[in-house]
Amino acid sequence: MARLIGKPLKRNEDPRLLTGQALFVDDVELPGMLHAAFLRSDYAHARLKGIDVSAALEREGVVAVYTAEDMGDDWAPGPPLVIPPPTIEEVTFNTRTQVPLVKEKVRHAGEPLAVVIAESRYIAEDALDDIVVDLEPLPAVVDIERALDADAALVHDDLESNLAAHLVQTKGGYQSAREQADLIIKRRIVMDRGIAGAMENRGIVAYWDNKQQYLTVWDTTQSPIPIRNGLAGMFGLSEHQVRVIAPFVGGGFGPKIMMFYPEEVVLTWATLKLALPIKWIEDRRENFYATTQERGQVHEVEMALTEDGRILGLKDDFIHDSGAYDPYGLTIPLNTQCHVLGPYDIPNFSSELHVVFTNKTLTTPVRGAGRPHGVFVVERLLDIAARELGIDPSEIRRRNYLPNDVFPYDNVIIDQAFANFIIDSGDYLPAMEKALDMIGYKDFIENEQPRLRAEGRRVGIGVVSFIETTGVGPYEGARVTIESSGDVSVATGVGTQGQGHFTSFAQVVAEHLGVKVSDVHMVTGDTAQFHWGTGTFASRGAVVAANAMNAASSIVRKKILELASELLDAPEDELEIEDGEVRVADVPRMSISLGELAQKANPLRGAVEPGTEPGLEATAYFGPNYGATAFGTHAMIVEVDPETMNVEIRRYVVVEDCGTVLNPLILDGQVHGGVAHGIGNAFYEQLFFDDNGQLLNASFADYLIPTSAEVPTIEVGHTVTPSPLNPLGSKGAGEAGAIPVPALMAQAIENAIGEAGFEILESPMSPLKLFNLYYGDKEQ
């Protein structure tokens, strides 16, 4: 069996993408298609007193205008997606989910009040100006640290406070560890909000064919099968009457798994009424208000250590900003709690979590989904401890790594799946050592940095470790079929947003079936082609979906060998599958092509043995007991301009361990993209709100995203620690590039400044923030 898994093959899908032949939602054009535009609230918090759409209805080209009242009994808040099970004790959780259109009260700026359906988007947009809305402004809840104040306005009037959730997690006894400590590090750490900023904004085309009684929805979703199931349930349809297609998607990053966006519900409802196709494509300004966001947390944290730098315990009490609603429950803050523990042996841990409602766009996962927060907290404390104890930052990490003989390691606390947070495998020291070697750590510290500092240049180095929980369940599936042409067709429920699925998944299948990767034809994200699955998120494709394909391909391989053995009159163990045919190993002339085998497996006439399954096809599913945990080390060298506090990244090194690598070329691309995203999160991307909840920088003129000028050449290395949880031994890596960057950048900048007392305790930073932090401290 020729090895294809692990080969750095170029992506099959790229010719289609580069020549404009790939289908995106906005490419969908249907006869008689109408266009939608949404009227959105300018206020973050307001009482809806009335809405008059009569003038909009009179505009030529307007087909319909709908408000919440028009939806009647079909108007309902969306379903909660992740809620704690009753087995989790001592947790407070108040479920409040988003609504399709505002009925009584606006809870965040940009929340939709009405929708116009017109013959063109231009007419629909113009008609929005015809709508008269009476809104009574209310005080806005913006500061998450004041959201629980007794005099704070209520985001949800039926609750006694703005508390969305409360949970305490403990391991060991932190207080007793604190009493034994030689050093206590205590800090307040802030991480602020940003957007995902995908290249392609969200978009939907919905069409109810009244004659066929069939609904088709093209959607920029990361989760087409749950969208199908949900829309069917909401509108009383059979799931077989609904087809959801997630075509090529120009970046997902988490917000596109959100269910259900108001636009998905409203467009579906409208096409059911009008029986005409309707398209809505989000513009960039809408994206800043209407697409979910992430990152807002404030931590009061302390770490207890011995004099030789060993961690005795960690206490992290923090507030998490849920925004106006909480459909994703505790997913993000639970990820934070787990990743605060990092790859380290922390025997005593305590964390009290408060999740609060605010009058901001709701929060759901964005690349990292709470993991960067936890990594930032623990890595910052280790850096501070290393300085106070006079220990090298790399050495303090070495002393605290979990040893490689403790896995699987149960951290005792619960993770996002409300199960024990167990790390399946790890070997952290080799990844650290490889990163130090690649960046030239020893030479930089001993030679280059002193030389450059003597020239008056502020250069610094950073090195941080991280873990990434990946490959969460419940399951994914795949169907693999040998066609009569000899080509292989594969269908799976996961969608693709640029991860290279059409290539890496094909490598898994082609290796089993002895065909070229280019002969494997992949269908992803189409509920008419595959009916069961969850979606593309949490770095799970290479774990859950790939292992389903591995299982289905293994079954098809067995069928091939059984049938070929019968037809060639040779034992199965003497057969080999290569180059699209089965042949007897010692007698190559005795062979049969896969195409001919497929035809013989599906006879048109004659009798077959009872129980015979037609075709060379199999469907299989894979679901892990718990998620596989990837890990790695990032290192960087920066130079800080002391006059402007601008930061130039001179070198960037990543050592990633995601178990068995399916395609190193694609993996490195994922890492590059993640690092670029992480640089934005660390130094550029921050949303600014005023006291009324108004977003002040809702455009790329004011919201900074790093370009190729700011992103350095990224050097990537690998170690391989296979996961014992799946046959391929794979772990995910989609978010790994982004997760440790804020912590790394803070450490490297501090090292470049090189002055006692200068600390970075918030993210993202910026030249202005650095300038104020550095020179402000000097003035004091």
Helix and strand arrangement:
Blueprint: H1 14-18, E1 34-40, E2 46-52, H2 54-58, E3 62-67, E4 91-93, E5 105-106, E6 112-118, H3 121-128, E7 132-137, E8 163-171, H4 174-180, E9 183-191, E10 203-209, E11 214-219, H5 224-234, E12 242-245, H6 262-274, E13 278-281, H7 284-290, E14 297-305, E15 311-323, H8 331-340, E16 348-357, H9 371-389, H10 393-400, E17 409-414, E18 420-423, H11 428-439, H12 441-454, E19 458-470, E20 476-482, E21 488-492, H13 501-513, E22 520-524, H14 541-568, E23 575-578, E24 581-584, E25 587-593, H15 594-600, E26 617-622, E27 628-640, E28 647-657, H16 664-683, E29 714-718, H17 741-753, E30 762-763, H18 767-779
Parallel strand pairs: 1-13, 9-30, 11-12, 15-16, 21-22, 28-29
Antiparallel strand pairs: 1-6, 2-5, 2-7, 3-6, 4-8, 8-16, 9-14, 10-11, 10-13, 14-15, 17-18, 19-27, 20-21, 20-26, 23-24, 24-25, 27-28
Helix pairs in contact: 8-9, 9-17, 13-14, 16-17
